[in-house]
Specification:
Elements lengths: L1 E2 L20 E5 L2 E5 L6 E4 L12 E2 L2 H10 L19 H12 L4 E4 L6 H11 L8 E5 L5 H12 E2 L10 H8 L5 E5 L5 H10 L4 E6 L13 E4 L5 H12 L5 H14 L3 H23 L23 H5 L2 H6 L3 H12 L3 E2 L5 H5 L7 H7 L3 E4 L2 E4 L3 H7 L7 H13 L6 H6 L1 H10 L2 H17 L3 H18 L2 H17 L3 H18 L2 H20 L18 H6 L17 H4 L31 H29 L33 H4 L90
Parallel strand pairs: 6-10, 6-11, 7-9, 9-10
Antiparallel strand pairs: 1-2, 2-3, 3-4, 5-8, 12-14, 13-14
Helix pairs in contact: 2-3, 4-5, 4-6, 7-8, 7-9, 12-14, 16-18, 16-19, 18-19, 18-20, 19-20, 20-21, 21-22, 21-23, 22-23
Length: 771
C-alpha cells in the first residue's frame, strides 16, 4: 500500500498526516485505485511489467502474527482488572474439538448465547497451536460476509508487500486462500446454507471451528460439518463459578439460591457471572451500611448509604438481572450503557467515552460493566451481553439523542488528519450504527468523512454500506453534489468487484448529476472510469486476445482441411437374412481355445476429505491395507490358475471333449484305460418304447454333452455319412449342397464290441431325424 501525504505504510502505525487530505494509492487486482477524500476516487488500469506486477505473497513470520493477534484483541479498560474466570466442565467438549480439528475435520459448535462459546474457543486455540502449518487464526463473523472473511483470512496469513496487490482479485484471492493450511476459529457465525458452503469450499486446506447460536441458519447437507452442542453447567459447577465471581465462599442460603437460579437459567454461565455482580454489589452496600454508624457519609459519594441490610435478589431478578445491576452502577457507566443501547448494542471504544459522556473518567465504565457481566468481547470491540438490551428496553431504560451525538462526534473524529484508516475500520460497527440513527444532515457529513477511511483500510464491506446510506441521506436532504459523489464511489467499487453493469449505471448517474452542477473535474474522473468500464466490456470477462484477420485459405488446401476436417461416415453393414435360427445362432459353438482372461476391477482408495497436513498417518495405513489386498488377490489368482491346469490323477479316464473336430463331426470316444472296465466306457443301447422316442443314430455319430455337464435340452443332429440326394424341388442346373465327408469309425479294442449310441431328447423338442 502506497500512502502519500505523509501517511505510514505499516498496518499498526498511528503517525499523523502532513496535510488535511489523506490520499491513498491502492493496487486492487488489475486496477490502481487512488482514494481522494476531496474530489473522489480515481481508477485506472494497472500497467503490466511495472512495480505493481502481482507476485506470490509471502507468509507472515511468528513475530508479525503475534503482533497482529495482539492488535485484534479488545482493549483493556482502565481501572481495576477484572477477575479471569476459569472454564468449568468443558473438558470433554474441549478434547473432542481438539481431536476433530487434529484430523482436519471442520466442526460447528452450537450453543445458546451465554453458554461460554468464546471461552471454549480460547481454550481450544491453545490446544491447536502446533497442528497446522499456518497455526491458528481467530476471526469474528459478526455481520460479516463470506467474501470479507476470506479477505480477512488472507490478510492475517500473508504479509503486505510492494509487489503484491493490496486487495487481490477474486480469482487470485481464491488461489491464495486455497493454499492456506490453518485451524480457523470463527466466533459469532451469522450465516449458513450455501454461503457457508462457499466459505468451506474456498479453503480446502483449513479446519474450521464455527461457533454459532441455535437461531443461526443451518449448514447445507453438502458441508460435511461435525456438530457439537454446548449445554449448560451442572449445579456444582454453577456454585463454584458463583464463588469465584464473588471472591468468597457462599452461605447456605446463597447456595440454595444458586441452585434455584441454575434451574431457572438452564445452567448458562453468563447468568452466574451476572449473579456474582449482584452479590458483590450487595456485599458492598451491606458493608457500607455497617460503616455508616462510625463515619459520616461522604459529600461527594454518588450513592447514598442504606441503613438496612440488602436482602438476596429474588429468583426473577437473578434470571433477568440487567435492571437491578444498572440501578446499582455509577452514573458514568449508565451513560455509557445508553450509548451502547442507541448504537445497536455496540459499545464505543473507551477512548471515545470521555467525549461522549462528558466525564474525564468515563473510560473506566467499560471495566465496571464487564465485571457485572453486562458487556462481552466481540472481536476487537465490546458489545452488550446477550439479553441485556431486551431487559433494559422492557424496564424503560432507553436512549434519547445519543445516536445523533455519536454521529456528530464520529464525523469530526473520522475526518481528523491524525486518525488512521485502520482505527476507523476498528470502530466500523459503531460508526454505521450512529449513521443509521442520525438525521440526514449528520448522516451525510458522517458518510462523507468515513467513506474514504473505509476504502483506504480495505474494509470494503463497511465502505459499501456507508456509501449506500450516505446516498439515501443525500437524496433526502437534497444535496446533489454529495449524491453525485456517493454514486461515483459506488460505481468505482462495482468496477473493482467486476460488476460492470452496476458500475455503468452508477457512473452514468454520477456524470449526469455532475453535468448539471458543471463540475468539470468530477465529470472528467467519471468519464475516465466509464471509459474503463467500456474497455472491460469489450475485452470480455477473461480478457480475450486481440482478433487476427488473415486471408482465407484456398479450397482444397491443407490449411482448410485442418480447419474444416471431413467427417467420413462408415457404411452400415447389411446382414443377409438367415435361413434358420439354428444356423444363425449355433448351439454347439466352439469354446475359446486359449485361456479366458477375466478383468478384475481394481478398487482405488477414496480420497479422504479435509486438509492434507493431517493425512500422512492415514496414508501409511491405507498403503498397508492396499498391499494386503494386492497380495491376497495374487494368491487367489495363483490358486485358481493352478486348479485349471492341474494334472489328472493316474487311473482316471479323461473327460471327453464336447467340441467337434475339424471335419464337423464329434471326436471318437477315447479308449478305455488299463484300470477301467470296458463295460463302463461302452454305451448301452436303448430300444425305443414309443413312436416319439429317439431312433438309433448311425455308428459314426455321437451325442454332444451340454456345456454344463448335464444332458442337453435340444438335440444335435449330425449329417449322415452318405451324401444325401438333392431335393426334388430344386431347379435344374443347381448344384446340390456338398455334404461333409464321412468321419472314420471309432477305433475300439477287438474284445469290446462297438454298440451304436442313442441320443436322448427332451420331451419339448422334436425327435431327431433318421438317415
Amino acid at each position: 500500500m502506497d500512502r502519500t501525504q505523509g501517511q505510514p505504510t505499516s498496518d499498526d502505525a498511528a503517525a499523523p498526516a502532513a496535510g488535511p487530505a489523506r490520499v491513498v494509492r491502492l493496487s486492487v487486482g488489475e486496477y490502481v485505485l487512488t482514494v481522494n477524500p476531496v474530489d473522489g476516487s480515481e481508477i485506472e488500469a494497472r500497467r503490466p511489467g511495472g512495480d505493481t506486477e502481482s507476485a506470490a505473497p509471502a507468509r507472515r513470520d511468528k513475530a508479525s502474527r503475534e503482533a497482529l493477534e495482539a492488535a485484534a484483541r479488545p482493549p483493556v479498560p482502565p481501572g481495576a482488572p477484572t477477575v479471569a474466570l476459569p472454564l468449568l466442565e468443558r473438558e470433554e467438549e474441549r478434547e473432542r474439538l481438539a481431536r476433530l480439528l487434529g484430523r482436519g475435520r471442520s466442526v460447528r459448535l452450537t450453543g445458546p448465547a451465554g453458554s461460554g462459546r468464546t471461552a471454549l474457543l480460547d481454550a481450544v486455540a491453545g490446544d491447536c497451536e502446533d497442528l497446522a502449518p499456518d497455526g491458528v487464526v481467530r476471526l469474528c463473523g459478526h455481520r460479516q460476509t463470506p467474501t470479507e472473511l476470506l479477505y480477512a483470512l488472507h490478510s492475517t496469513v500473508y504479509a503486505p508487500s510492494e509487489h503484491v496487490p493490496d486487495r487481490p482479485a477474486r480469482a487470485e484471492l481464491l488461489r491464495h486462500v486455497g493454499q492456506i493450511g490453518a485451524v480457523v476459529l470463527l466466533d459469532d457465525l451469522d450465516f449458513g446454507g450455501s454461503a457457508l458452503e462457499e466459505l468451506l469450499r474456498a479453503t480446502p486446506e483449513c479446519a474450521w471451528l464455527l461457533a454459532a447460536s441455535p437461531d443461526t441458519p443451518a449448514p447445507s447437507d453438502r458441508s460435511h460439518l461435525e456438530e457439537v452442542f454446548l449445554g449448560g453447567l451442572s449445579r456444582a459447577a454453577c456454585v463454584e463459578l458463583l464463588e469465584l465471581a464473588v471472591g468468597r465462599p457462599l452461605t447456605e442460603l446463597e447456595s440454595a439460591w444458586a441452585g434455584d437460579l441454575r434451574f431457572a437459567s438452564e445452567g448458562l454461565a453468563l447468568r452466574f457471572v451476572q449473579a456474582g455482580g449482584l452479590l458483590r454489589q450487595r456485599d458492598e452496600m451491606n458493608r457500607s451500611g455497617e460503616d455508616g454508624d462510625e463515619e459520616e457519609p461522604g459529600v461527594f459519594e454518588e450513592r447514598p448509604r442504606d441503613a438496612v441490610l440488602v436482602p438476596l435478589p429474588t429468583l426473577a431478578e437473578g434470571a433477568a438481572p440487567a435492571e437491578l445491576l444498572v440501578s446499582r452502577i455509577s452514573e458514568s457507566a449508565r451513560a455509557a450503557l445508553r450509548f451502547a443501547c442507541a448504537l445497536d448494542e455496540e459499545m464505543p471504544h473507551p477512548a471515545h467515552l470521555p467525549a461522549l459522556v462528558g466525564d474525564t473518567h468515563a473510560d473506566a465504565a467499560v471495566g465496571e460493566l464487564l465485571a457485572c457481566g453486562l458487556l462481552t468481547a466481540a472481536g476487537s470491540r465490546y458489545r452488550l451481553a446477550a439479553g441485556v438490551a431486551r431487559q433494559l428496553a422492557d424496564s424503560g431504560f432507553g436512549a434519547s439523542g445519543e445516536a445523533l451525538t455519536a454521529a456528530r462526534h464520529y464525523a469530526w473524529w473520522t475526518g481528523h488528519a491524525s486518525v488512521t484508516p485502520q482505527r476507523v475500520a476498528a470502530e466500523a460497527d459503531a460508526v454505521l450504527a450512529a449513521l443509521a440513527g442520525a438525521d440526514v444532515v449528520a448522516a451525510v457529513l458522517l458518510a462523507r468523512t468515513a467513506a474514504p477511511a473505509f476504502a483506504a483500510s480495505l474494509h470494503w464491506g463497511a465502505w459499501e454500506r456507508v456509501l449506500r446510506a450516505g446516498s439515501e441521506a443525500a437524496r433526502t436532504a437534497g444535496e446533489v453534489a454529495e449524491q453525485a459523489y456517493f454514486h461515483h464511489e459506488l460505481g468505482v467499487l462495482a468496477l473493482c468487484g467486476g460488476r460492470l453493469d452496476r458500475a455503468r449505471a452508477e457512473l452514468e448517474t454520477s456524470n449526469g448529476l455532475r453535468g448539471a452542477l458543471a463540475d468539470k473535474r468530477g465529470t472528467v474522473a467519471g468519464r475516465r472510469a466509464l471509459a474503463l468500464v467500456t474497455d472491460r466490456e469489450k475485452a470480455g470477462p477473461d480478457g480475450s486476445p486481440p482478433l487476427r484477420l488473415e486471408a482465407p485459405a484456398p479450397p482444397g488446401s491443407e490449411a482448410q482441411t485442418q480447419a474444416f476436417p471431413l467427417v467420413r461416415v462408415a457404411p452400415v453393414p447389411v446382414v443377409p437374412p438367415a435361413a434358420s435360427f439354428e444356423e444363425t445362432f449355433p448351439l454347439d459353438a466352439k469354446p475359446p481355445a486359449g485361456p479366458v482372461t477375466v478383468r478384475v476391477p481394481v478398487t482405488r482408495p477414496v480420497r479422504e476429505a479435509g486438509p492434507r497436513w493431517h493425512r500422512r498417518p492415514a496414508a501409511l495405513a491405507a498403503g498397508g491395507v492396499l498391499a494386503v489386498l494386492a497380495l491376497g488377490t495374487a494368491v487367489s489368482f495363483a490358486i485358481s490358475s493352478g486348479d485349471a491346469s492341474a494334472p489328472q490323477a493316474p487311473g482316471t479316464s479323461p473327460v471327453p471333449s464336447s467340441a467337434p473336430d475339424a471335419s464337423g463331426n464329434d471326436p471318437a470316444p477315447a479308449p478305455a484305460g488299463p484300470g477301467t472296465s470296458s463295460s463302463a466306457s461302452a454305451p448301452t443301447p436303448a430300444a425305443p418304447s414309443s413312436p416319439g422316442a429317439a431312433t438309433p443314430a448311425p455308428s459314426g455319430s455321437a451325442s454332444t454333452p451340454a456345456p454344463g455337464g448335464g444332458p442337453s435340452r435340444h438335440p444335435v443332429t449330425k449329417p449322415p455319412s452318405t451324401p444325401a440326394s438333392p431335393p426334388a424341388s430344386s431347379p435344374a442346373g443347381s448344384t446340390p449342397p456338398a455334404s461333409p465327408p464321412a468321419s472314420p469309425s471309432a477305433s475300439t479294442s477287438p474284445s469290446v464290441p462297438v454298440t451304436p449310441t442313442t441320443t436322448t431328447t427332451s420331451a419339448l423338442s422334436p425327435p431327431a431325424a433318421t438317415p
